[in-house]
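Pilot study result, target chain (299 residues):
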Amino acid sequence: MDKIKKVDSVAQFNTQRGQQTQHPLVSVLDQSKSTPIHPFRHLSELYIVFLKDAHCSPLSYGRNQYDYQDETLLFIAPGQVFGFDENEESLQPNGWALAFHPDLIRGTSLGKHIKDYNFFGYDINEALHISHRERQIVLECFQKIQYELEYPIDKHSRTLIVSTIELFLNYCVRFYDRQFITREHLHKDILVRFEELLDSYFDSDQPQTLGLPSVSYCAEQLNLSANYFGELVKKETGKSAQDYIQTKVIEVAKEKIFNVSKSLSEIAYEMGFKYPQHFTRLFKQHVGQSPSAYRLSSN
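Predicted structure:
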């Protein structure tokens, strides 16, 4: 079960599921027509979107349950590992799957902006849960792609397929915005824990040993992916997670500067800066004056 198999082509993805390949770079599969698959873990070289057709098993979010339980969309990007850890000999896939090779979108508008769809970097516990109406929109997009795959390939095929994938992904951006809104109370709890995490971090000796807290470190401590965490903080506060951390750093620095028994260099090292000049530069950017000038004006 620890073995990881690479999925590097659409044809391979389809063959694993016992389905035919209609286009070498893109596929839409009705998973109910797939043959059972072995529960291996896979390293994907494709972009893959799974629509779970059945109600998913309850996924926890902190101490809470997910809301929209109708269907689930999971997004996988090239270089990511996906699969199953069950001990069963084989599993029957359900729902739908969209798979496309990066070559399909290379040189297109979507190819230039695919990295902007941050949900390809979300963890499974941050999956997109959609309503019945949203599912209909997803399937309409899949069916349009499927129609093009069944139509003889011509000079319009690639443009129409790629534009439909882009339309689908833009709908997913809207659906994720809805999901963030419907979980506003849960996200506020995350922000409270984020603030507590930063407080405890700077009250400890971690800055001296680990340096300044990074976005990825904070996300990991809160059991979130860095991408999802960044989106959450941005939507709730209007600031990026990095800006939020830097604001906290400046707040702590202002308090420490009052302690004239320590030099500004000592304070910089104590807070996790490798070089005092980096501390001075950041402080001046946020406060409008250097730490030494702030210390003098506060006395």
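One observation from the pilot: The radius of gyration is 24 Å. A full batch analysis is planned for the follow-on phase.
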